[in-house]
Amino acid sequence: MTEVTNTVRFALDGQVVEVKGERRTTTVLNYLREELRRTGTKEGCAEGDCGACVVLVGELNHDASAIDYVPVNSCLQLLPTLDGKSLKTVESLSRPGVAQHPIQEAMVTCHASQCGFCTPGIVMSLVQMAQVTPEPTRQDITDALSGNLCRCTGYKPIIDAAQKACENTASLSIQDPMDIKLLKQIKRSDHPTLSLEGDIIVQPVVRTRKGNEFVSPGTLAELSHYLLEHPQATLVAGSSEIGLQVNKDFVRPDHIVYIGHVKELQTIQTLPSHWRVGAGVGLQEVMHLCAKELPDFSEVLRRFGSPPIRYTATLAGNIANGSPIGDSMPCLMALGSQLGLRHGKKTREVALEDFYTGIKKNILQPGEFIEYITIPRLKANERFAAHKVSKRFEQDISATCAAIRFTLSGDKLTHVRLAYNGLSPYPARAKKIEKVLEGVRPSDVKTSDLDQAIAQSFTPRDGLRATWAYRALLARNLVLKFIHPLDLEVSPS
Ligand SMILES: Cc1cc2nc3c(=O)[nH]c(=O)nc-3n(C[C@H](O)[C@H](O)[C@H](O)COP(=O)(O)OP(=O)(O)OC[C@H]3O[C@@H](n4cnc5c(N)ncnc54)[C@H](O)[C@@H]3O)c2cc1C
Ligand code: FES
Ligand code: FES
User: Fold this and answer.
1) Residue 246 dihedral angles phi and psi, to the nearest 5°
2) In terms of CB atoms within 10 Å, which of 98, 256, 408, 489 comes out highest?
3) What's the pLDDT at 197?
4) Distance from the CA of 184 to the center of ligand 1, in angstroms?
5) What CA–CA distance (Å, rounded) separates 416 from 384?
6) 239: region left, alpha or beta (phi > 0 left; psi from -120 to 50 alpha)
7) Ligand 3 center–CA 49 separation, angstroms
8) Ligand 1 pocket list (CB less than 6 A)
9) Domain annotation for the chain: domains and CATH numbers
10) How many A from CA of 112 to the centre of ligand 3?
11) How far apart are CA 120 and CA 70, in angstroms?
């Protein structure tokens, strides 16, 4: 393990690339195209929507025996986040003696590329899928491609190519023992660096002459110490939102703190009553975590962005970002999630429903950050349901997402918790609508009572994605969708 400051180091095809003097907000895409001249990776939208820029970023697995690669929108990732990681671009797929990866060969034989602009991104998404799901179903393939747009082919030949390539699983792996060796060499220490006086020193990955910097602490102690000293610093987790701000609004924060290497934040604890999810855990992992016990939450996450977004974006980033149409929050509020908010050495726990104070405003104090999120697990007789309504099935933002948790006490709904996004300045519980449902048999719930409570709960406003009339109708119909299946379980009065 070595410490090298002011240098971004990553493994690329059996070599360590050392970058000095780049800006802290240079994107991986721009560095690849403009500095390394790896122009196979394309820029389509620069906002995470088209997938033309997908590359693979890998980290050592739990026992350092292999590298786990995830698909990443290189247009949104900041170059310094690559420090200590392995990168694979479409050019990485041709090696001595191997001109093309089987996915590329199949793309050719199935006529899956026409103008070719989308092809490198599509190949990289499929190559990553083949690493984790070497025998994919058609659904696995369409899920893997949900963040890749192709204007020419109509997708069928691409899906055919993926199926054909995966008929022979033996040659799909992109593991390279040299990359594993290099990652061990460039791994940063996971113990804080201390001064002679015993104070924590957080080494910069990038520092400018003006003193602006990008840091990537390895421990919670370093992160909280740095934020106490630089309370205005910008936290970066998955960068799906920050990358947009950099590309579209030309935001250039003076101090950037990346939390992707903070080991304590990457963990999930499974407890009898809840899961405790660290702020660095990606949405893809949360989607798998909840699949069995909270399938509707998992389904909302399956429709969250696309694999490159979900593999990088975090639950904490979604919450901290605080979009009125953020998708995880209605589910978490209905479940009763708590947030662990860390400031220095202290952590306070607050309910997620008390976190927001206005549009994209929250109760975080300067220097404070989300350390973990709890996701409550259901007890016997408790039910949870959620549904996201959007124009497209995936890679689209909600018109409304609603979630409900309740107990079925005999034939009545009790302990009802209901939350929405899209209806108010921030995702929130709908307590007046909860009251309409509380203590009532599902079949006795009146739509007129629901409509009245909806009108009393929210200030009508039309949005770009949906009119108020549509959203109000959804708010009612989603409740009916959640409770109607219970009619079959509860006998009529
Ligand atoms: C193509 C695309 C599709 C998307 N689809 C969806 C969607 O379907 N549903 C949806 O809800 N959102 C969607 N988003 C929005 C975004 O991806 C999410 O809000 C995501 O969860 C943000 O997480 P992140 O880790 O990438 O955050 P980042 O971009 O790293 O950070 C976002 C904000 O949170 C702050 N932050 C991050 N971590 C912490 C922490 N631990 N403590 C305090 N502050 C923190 C950052 O400083 C920043 O202000 C999409 C975005 C894109 C680009
Ligand atoms: S360029 Fe479109 S997703 Fe990156
Ligand atoms: S082949 Fe032209 S966009 Fe896909």
Assistant:
1) -65, -45
2) 256
3) 78
4) 30
5) 10
6) left
7) 15
8) 47-49, 234-242, 244, 259, 279, 304-305, 309, 313-314, 316-318, 320-321, 323, 326-327, 369-370, 397
9) 102-171 (1.10.150.120), 193-261 (3.30.43.10), 267-488 (3.30.465.10)
10) 8
11) 15
Task: Give the separation between CA 122 and CA 52, rounded to whole angstroms.
Answer: 7
Identify the pLDDT of residue 80.
96
In the numeric block, the tokens 């660096």 are attached to: 193
Strand partners for 88: 56
Mean pLDDT calculated for residue range 345-370: 97
With b for 16 or more beta-carbon neighbours within 10 A and e for fewer, the 267-303 pattern comes to eeeeeeebbbbbbbbbbbbbbebbeeebebbbbbbbb
Question: Which of 320, 190, 349 is closest to 262 using CA atoms?
Answer: 190
- Find where tokens 């009393």 sit: 456
Kindly give the residue spans of alpha helices, DSSP state H, lying in 153-277: 156-165, 177-186, 220-229, 242-248
3-state secondary structure 28-89: HHHHHHHHCCCCCCCCCCCCCCCCCCEEEEEEECCCCCCEEEEEEECCCCEHHHHCCCEEEC
Q: Which residue type, as a one-letter code, is found at position 35?
A: E
Token pair listed for 191: 């113990």
Q: Which residues, in sequence order, are CB contacts of 122 under 8 Å at separation 6+? A: 51, 54, 107, 112, 145, 148, 150, 158
Reported as a single tens digit per residue, the pLDDT across 174-209 is 999 999 999 999 987 777 777 777 788 887 888 888
* Mutational pocket test of ligand 3: of 150, 156, 159, the residue with most ligand atoms within 8 Å of the beta carbon: 150
Residue 481 has a CB neighbour count (10 Å cut-off) of: 14
Residues 270-287 pLDDT 10s: 999 999 999 999 999 999
Distance of CA 185 to the CA centre of its chain: 28
* Residues 426 and 335 sit within 8 Å (Cβ to Cβ): no
CB contact at 8 A, 33 and 91:
no
Residue nearest to atom 4 of ligand 3 (CA): 150
User: Are 99 and 80 in contact, with CB atoms under 8 Å apart?
Assistant: no
Closest to 2 measured CA to CA, from 201, 204, 188, 191: 188
C-alpha to C-alpha distance for 371 and 73, rounded to whole angstroms: 25
Regarding the beta carbon of 52 and ligand 3, being less than 6 Å apart is answered no
Q: pLDDT-based confidence at 465, cuts 50/70/90?
A: confident
CB atoms within 10 A of CB 449: 16
Non-local CB neighbours of 458 within 8 Å, separated by 6+ positions: 423, 424, 430, 472, 475
What token pair was written down for 231? 């309370």
Characterize the bridge pairing of strands 346-351 and 15-19.
unpaired
3 state SS of 462: coil
